[in-house]
Structures are given as structure tokens and as C-alpha cells.
Amino acid sequence: MFGDLFEEEYSTVSNNQYGKGKKLKTKALEPPAPREFTNLSGIRNQGGTCYLNSLLQTLHFTPEFREALFSLGPEELGLFEDKDKPDAKVRIIPLQLQRLFAQLLLLDQEAASTTDLTDSFGWTSNEEMRQHDVQELNRILFSALETSLVGTSGHDLINRLYHGTIVNQIVCKECKNVSERQEDFLDLTVAVKNVSGLEDALWNMYVEEEVFDCDNLYHCGTCDRLVQAAKSAKLRKLPPFLTVSLLRFNFDFVKCERYKETSCYTFPLQINLKPFCEQSELDDLEYIYDLFSVIIHKGGCYGGHYHVYIKDVDHLGNWQFQEEKSKPDVNLKDLQSEEEIDHPLMILKAILLEEENNLIPVDQLGQKLLKKIGISWNKKYRKQHGPLRKFLQLHSQIFLLSSDESTVRLLKNGSLQAESDFQRNDRQIFKMLPPESPGLNNGISCPHWFDINDSKVQPIREKDIEQQFQGKESAYMLFYRKSQLQRPPEARANPRYGVPCHLLNEMDAANIELQTKREECDSANNTFELHLHLGPQYHFFNGALHPVVSQTESMWDLTFDKRKTLGDLRQSIFQLLEFWEGDMVLSVAKLVPAGLHIYQTLGGDELTLCETEIADGEDIFVWNGVEVGGVHIQTGIDCEPLLLNVLHLDTSSEREKCCQVIESPHVFPANAEVGTVLTALAIPAGVIFINSAGCPGGEGWTAIPKEDMRKTFREQGLRNGSSILIQDSHGDNSLLTKEEKWVTSMNEIDWLHVKNLCQLESEEKQVKISATVNTMVFDIRIKAIKEFKLMKELADNSCLRPIDRHGKLLCPVPDSYTLKEAELKMGSSLGLCLGKAPSSSQLFLFFAMGSDVQPGTEMEIIVEETISVRDCLKLMLKKSGLQGDAWHLRKMDWCYEAGEPLCEEDATLKELLICSGDTLLLIEGQLPPPGFLKVPIWWYQLQGPSGHWESHQDQTNYTSSRGRVWRAASSQGASGNEPAQVSLLYLGDIEISEDATLAELKSQAMTLLPFLEFGVPSPAHLRAWTVERKLPGRLLRTDRQPLREYKLGRRIEICLEPLQKGENLGPQDVLLRTQVRIPGERTYTPALDLVWNTAQGGTAGSLRQRVADFYCLPVEKIEIAKYFPEKFEWLPISSWNQQITKRKKKKKQDYLQGAPYYLKDGDTIGVKNLLIDDDDDFSTIRDDIGKEKQKQRALGRRKSQEALHEQSSYILSSAETPARPRAPETSLSIHVGSFR
């Protein structure tokens, strides 16, 4: 969003020394860019909100929803100006949606911002950086809108447009009695696994019947016995807009991990839902739906990115392809087909036929293509067909490349058509398409589709939707609209249609302001940075290029004007490298795990760098085009070096019996034969296995047949990080025997474990019950009671509860469910427990006291779903034996932590989306009123003299009722002779309004009883920090700023630090703790606060000058370094002059608030006076001790891991690389005020 957010996961990481990060470039503040040629606005990504952007664009391009929202005026929703008034009921979420839709329609900017909207959701900056599921957001956002619109004319907006009805029926084959249950749906959730497409899934859900017969009979209430029956479901009521959610994410219970289903799943552009609905007398056209939005997910189940394909129903955008926009002369009649223009084969043939002897240099071929069609090969064809030379090589039956690939000829036998035919086609192909008016020339028969990817909006063709049927980038949500929904003619190509007057005036004024700012901003950044890798400084080693000495010697950073040509760049490099002799070839290179690899040679000196599509930060390899260090270099993607993990048995005599597995990284060209692995390892013969699962493990290995040994690594589907296993073809040892046997047995499971947890004596404690996925839970339970030989009375007073892998009992499963409906997998364990399962109107909940919940200590309760939060709290307090009113409920989130409190005590559990199986936490303390925060206050204890104000009292005498004192190593607050300990002492909680200022928070904190003993003169003598991970975190400045603007969140904690005198820090000021090193003693003087103004540039030179002025020393006679307490390391801060070097690290170390220093408030800066101390070392004795302890801990962890590997029963598990830890998942919520 879950950004892209993806990193390649390699089982072996390359240890090359020149991995580089992106550089931060500072730009002058510019107004937002205007809309691009599509005339549509995107939405900016706040860090992880691509899922939100995709859904908002879908709602925006649903005109009926947008106009229904616009129809609600200020008299119903309220005014923005009144949102902070205590008695005003301002429905802030619908108001922010109205404003956002108006901006997307009318504001001339490339992308709109959702910051105000997410603020109205109650999200903090942390929420906006997290990835969430768009299907979950769809339900939560609609629920929040329904709550926000209670009491207005739009109270039924969501229900009217999106809610439908499903009816489930069970028909008794004996008495024909029909048992019917009706349920509403907001979206249809359909399966993807083992289903070919949407219509197939709907057929399985709403056409096919499930028959209960044989051992799987149905208990009919009318017949009062088990009978044969048929179960089916039908769509009873269809909404105007149908939302379909595709279940692409599943869980593999064998591997115990989630995975994404990427198989082909088709869906139609128009669908007839009549076969899936109840019979009625409605017109057939009522069942026809047209696709108008496809939300697409790219990535895996642990992260990814969302974008959306949208049909422009009102023709608001300019559906014109960028390569067609600038073509001057129009003649659509001369074009035979769209495919002739799109496919480059015929165009290249036509160009070669015009040349003498049908021969042309490859560089000139690209230039002639640019002149003919008005766009370069890279822009139009490279994404689909690859580089030009690669395309020519792939069509060797038509094109003949010279040995050095510099010229290309058209083969005579590759073209059987007459030359006149080609010339005629040539004339037709190169006719230019016209620029068309937005939405006027295409007609209804040509739908206008756009790909909206956050800020980027591009036109696409309807056939492009088929590309999203399968793969890692595939459709995730589908939106259909009734075909009979017609738009009024005045809405066509009219973005002002339906927008209220006050929003029209607001957008007009904003456009005037934007235009003024753009006219004032008359300069743009037309330069970019290239990383030049110098060929003489590299050598070819282990399949890739590596620097001979160091990265700084082999690579230069060059800032260049991208409007200049490639020839200008070559000339500039010649002037820069005075030592260069001979030819100079520039090639695009990339860093891969194996090292540096050359992909494409740049040609066409007259082309600008923009036309060659060289990106900012591109790696350019400078060489002679043939060899490096005397070694001939192969280039191109075909011979890309692959870093593979090779596993094989240690054949030494000492280890022959124990079958020790050796894992080692090896590099091979992608176009090398797989059999070269045996040659590289000096193994005369063997069997090669590849891991199709992507990680070393038994179940994913596949043997390569002998006839496939001559295939290349790429043809076998291997990539960086893939694993290869080699076994001796004549040996007796087999690494896969145990694993294969285990997998086979797991596939044969067709039973369930049922344990007797009824606290009744039985001969058996656990029994096996055979079952299928269609077996009813009721039948499983009755069979288990019979097997345990328990009393028949238990049939009416018992239930089955799943048992997870930790032994915890989960929510009871209803008897009426099949194993498939209950999502129970074969081979899982169930517990037979006393008590009935909850009914369909009841909830089974876990609850516990406090936020530190140990697994297995939760209590259980069954309540009605219509019970209020207040009554539910009373029942839980009564059952747990607690008394008093000072308690509130919180829902445990996915991280097993206390989530947001259930603030609306009169709301029902159903309205708050509480489900069976959820865990609620009883937290001590009453909730603050709406708009108030409950803030724990800590005292920032300083240890020893530091130049700050300090209490003369014994602070350790004032412990709180909770008795909490935190001590942790940190650079902040360091006050001894070396970076010391930070202690935070808890003082108490205060309750304060979100609209109060920081100064008012300090004043209220000073009224706490323990605070009175410190004798702080005034709030101006206090400095406020947030508490993060039990340490001072973010510095809060500007005493007059309201707390709401800090985006603190509801679980914020504040620590207060005393000052000798008041301070007024500006937004560009950085507060640093400086300590002077004592010569010869490896210690430092007490810390002093230093305020550094970064407004003039946060450079190393600026900081050095500020430190020198502070200590009255010459700037050339000091050295400074930043302390990293978690590593016990000091990183010197040097200041290079640009005339001395232009190499890569200059900028990284010049801007200290970026990498690698990340300088922030509270950091410790060590200062060395070179007049009396010329030692290069900044470290202290405590740093040496800390590093030694870290080494011992790392050694202990390594030994414990080796011991666990030796105890493992499977050999391959010891060679398996541990999985990268995943970030904890967090729940998604939108906070809405009460309007009931």
C-alpha cells in the first residue's frame, strides 16, 4: 500500500560493499502541479494510503453516490467553522468527502490531498503510514458514513445504493417444507481458489444445490427427524451498484503461512445476474450490470500496492493516449487496424524497406522510428517488448544483426510480401492521429477507461483489463452498475454538474490562487544526478563487476542537465576524466545481489537524456565497450548474474555418516545451462533439485530430468535467492525421503480429532471422527458423544470448539454449519465442551482484565448482539467479581494489544462491528469525555549536573501509586561524564481537552501532588517530550499550539524536563546535547544544551560552526561526532568542500538530518578540542564494555540456534534461512461522533 511497498526476500544477502540508498534533494516550495493531459486529478499517497485512494476514486466516479452526497446541504451536515464548538453537531466526514470530491472535479492540480479526510477519521500519522485491506476499508467507511448521516435525508444513502439481499433455503425432500433465512449484503465475497472466474463462482454459490443425504442428513423441524434435503441460496434483491470482493488471500495450513492466489480469474465487462436471482416478473434488463471499476492489488499477502481501473461514465476526462496527443495530421480512414500501430514489427520492416540494401545502423533505426511516429522506442514499446536490440534478436527470422550488433539488415526470406504492400502499409502506419476533444469524438460505443495509481492518471483501453485476470498484480475488487442507470445529457463532460454553489465558489477561488502561485514560480528543476562507475576501477570477479579498491575511488556523482544530449554528457565526462584514453562507451548498469551488471549501451548522441529515458540516480558504467581488466564482459538481461543458494552433502569422511548439509552462495549467468552447477562444485554426476516453493524445505523440491539439464537457469524459472539441492546419484543418503513421506501422509487426512473437555469420565480422552468438508458439525458432535460413551443428555447441552495450535479453545461452532462453512480444515482438533453454542443473534466473547493478557487466562461470556456497551461492561464486571464504575472496555487488536476504547456506551455491539470470537479488555479508569485526552505524565529525571535546572530534593522519594520508574540507556538527558542513563518517574494522569494548548497541559501537570515538591517556577521552565518505547521521543515545541495539531493519538504519554530558564524553539531549531571530551581520560564533561538553527541549511559545516561558536573555539580546531547509544558507537561528522571531491558520500554526510546521521532533537554530540587533544578516538570505556556485551549476546544466540538445528529431525531444516520478521498487523477503524 501494505507500499510498493515490496522488498525482494533473498535467502542469501550479497556482501558487496556498494549498496546505495536514495539521496534526499531539497527543492524550493512549489505549488502543486496542474492536471495532466487526461484532465483528471489523482490523490496523493500519505505513505500507505493507496488502498484508501483507490476506493475514494471509485466512489468519486460513481456519479449517483457523489451527487447524493452533494445534495446534503450545510443545514443538515453543519459548517466547518462550527466543528470545534461543544454543542454543534457537525458531520465532519461527509463534509470532508464533499470537499474532496469537489477538488477532484474542479481544482486544477495533479493530485488532491486526503489529509483533512483522514484527520476526520481520527487517524494519526502512524495510521496513515500503515497498509490495510481495501475490502475491510469499504465496509468500515460505509458504516462510518451511515452513522454520520443518521437524522439527515441521506440516512439511507448506503442502503439505497449498495445493500442487497440474499435468501438461503433448505427444502425438505419428504414434506417439501422450506426453511428460509434472509440476510443483507454490502458486497458479494466470492472464492478465487479452484474457480475459473466470477460467473463460475456465482454459479457455485447461487445455482448449484447442496444435497443432504446418506450419512449427511438434515434434521427437519416439521418431520422431526433426519431427512434428505437440498440447500441453496439466491439473490433476492439487487442493489443499483454491486460490489464484488475476490478472496485472493488464503492460508496454507501445511506451511502455516498466508499466500496470495494468483491463478487466472476472469470476469466479464457486462454480466447478466438473472440466473443467480429468484424468479420474478422483472424485465430482463433489470439484471444486466456493467463493470465500471476494478481495484487492483500488486504484491503479496504481507505487503503490496493498490491502484484502480475506472470507467469514466460522465466523460469528464480526456481519453487520449499520450503518444497520440501531439500527432498533427489526422486520417482515421487510412488506418487499417489499431494492432498495426501498436505492434512494432511492421513499422521496423517499413523503415528498413526504405533504406538502401535494406541495411541501417541500429542507432539510426531508433532515430528514424522517432521521426516517423513522433515517440521513441523506449517510451512506446520497451515496457512490452524490451530493448530494441533484444527485439531484433528475438525476431532473427526477419532481422539480421551484424556480429558486433551495430547494424541490422532485413532478411529477404523473412518478408514474402511485395515491397509495394509494405510501402502502402508504411504510408498507412505513419499517418498521424488527431488530438480529440475530451469526451466528444469517441461516442458511447467506446468506453473511456483510466488507470488511476495514486497521483498518476493514465488512459487505458478496455482490453487492458484482461491483464488483471491473474498474477501478482491482479483484480481484487469489482464494481458493477445497472445498465439501465442513465446519466442526464447535461452531466456529460460537465464537472460542475451537481456541485453546490458554496463549493463552486471555493474551488474557483482556489484555482485563481494556484494560478497566481504558478506564475510566480518561474524556475523548475531540470537537473538530475547520475552515478558514474569508472571501468578502470572495476574488475570482473565471481560473475559480476566489483570495485578494485573502494566505492569512493570507482564511482563519481555527476549532476547534469537532462535537457542536454547524450553527446554533451559524453563530452562532459571526457573533460571530467582527464586520464581517460581511447573510446568511451556509456552503458546503463544496475546493482544486483551478485554485484554490478551492465544491461544496455546508450546510443544516439543527438538524443536528449529525457528521450533516452535515463532516470534520476541512474548507474552509468563508463568503459571501452568490450572488456574490463582484460576480461570480455557479456551485457544484457539474458546473461544477468544470478545469486543462488546451493545445498549439498558434505562428502568428507568425517561427516559422511551424519549427512551434514552445506549451503553456499554461487553466481551463475542466467543464460548458463543448469548442468554447470555440477561442474562448478566439481561433482562428476548427481541429481539436481530446484525449490518451487521459494524456500528450502522438503515439500517444494522438484528434480530436473536429464533431458532438461541443458536448459538455462532462466528457463527453469530460477531467480536471485533461489535454492538448488544436489544429491549424489549413486549414494544411499537421501535428503528428501522423510519430507516426501510426511507430505504424502498429510494429503491423506480425512478425519478430525475430538477431545473430551466435558469434565465427565470416559474411557477415551480423544477420538478420531472421519468426515468430509460437507459434513455437518452436528453430526460430528453426536458421533463424538457416542464414541466417548457419554450421556445422551449431552446432545442438547454441548458444543464443539476448535482448538488452535497453542491449545486455546476458540469460539463454539454452530451445529447447522458444515465443516466448509465453519472453515474447519481436515486434521484439526476440536474440543467437546459443556454448554450450548450461541444462536445466530448471540455473540460468544472472550474478555480479560488489564492490557497484559496471558494466553489462556481469558474468561468467556455469551451476550445478545443487541446489548449495549454499558450493559455488556456490567455483565463482564459481575462475572469477573469486580466492583465500581471506574472501568471501560477496549477491543483487543490483531497485535494482541489494547486497541481504541469503545467510547459510545449506548451503542450496541452489533453497531460497533463486534463479532463472535473477539476479545474485549476490562481497563481500569473511566473514559474521558469526547474531545478530551487522558495523559500520563512522567518526570524526566536528570542524573547529575548538566547545565539544566535541577531539583535539590531527593526525587526518588516521590514514587506513584503505580510505582513505575523506567531507566534506559539513551543519548537524551546524558549528564554524567559519558552518555548516561535516562530515568522517567511516573507522576500521575491528567485529563485535558484536545483543544487545550501545550502550555495549559504543563500548567495542569504542575497541579499533580508529586510535582509540587520539585518547585518548578512556571510552565515556561518545563520542556515537553512524548514518551516512545519508554524513552523521550519527539520534542513538543510552541507552547501556544493546540494539542490536537500535534496528532498525539489517544495513547500518548508525556514526560516533562525542568529548565533553568524559559526557551522558545522555532520549527527549524534542533536541540542537541553536547559534551566535550576530556583528553587522555576517555570520558566527557557534563552535557550542555545547544540549539542549532537549520534554516540556513542542515549541513555539517553549519553545525561545526555553531558548536565552535558555542565553545569559543576555532572551527578548524574541533572535531564532532554523533553518539548512537544502541550500538555504543560514535560517527564523526566531517565537512567536505565541493571542490575537493564530487563523490557519492558528500551529500549524504552534508545534510545531517538524512542518512547516515538522522540528526534529531535530543541527540548527543561529542566535541573534541584539537588544540589539546589530537586522538582520533571518540569512544569511552563504557562503549567498550557495551560492545563486548553485545558480542557475547550475539554469540549466545548463535550457539542456541545451532543447538536447535542439531536437535531437528529434518536435515534440511538446519540449512533453511529463517524468515524475515513481519511487522505486526493492526486493526483499521474510523471514529465517528454520535448523531443519534
TrEMBL record:
It catalyses: Thiol-dependent hydrolysis of ester, thioester, amide, peptide and isopeptide bonds formed by the C-terminal Gly of ubiquitin (a 76-residue protein attached to proteins as an intracellular targeting signal). One of its GO terms (biological process) is proteolysis. Keywords: Hydrolase, Protease, Thiol protease, Ubl conjugation pathway. Residues 1206-1216 have a biased composition (Polar residues). GO terms for cellular component: cytosol; nucleus. It is an enzyme of class 3 (hydrolase). Its EC number is 3.4.19.12. Residues 41-483 form the USP domain. InterPro entries: Papain-like_cys_pep_sf, Peptidase_C19, Peptidase_C19_UCH, UBL_USP40, USP, USP_CS. GO terms for molecular function: cysteine-type deubiquitinase activity. Residues 1189-1236 are annotated as: Disordered. Belongs to the peptidase C19 family. This is Ubiquitin carboxyl-terminal hydrolase 40. It comes from Pongo abelii. The lineage of its organism: Eukaryota, Metazoa, Chordata, Craniata, Vertebrata. The gene is USP40.
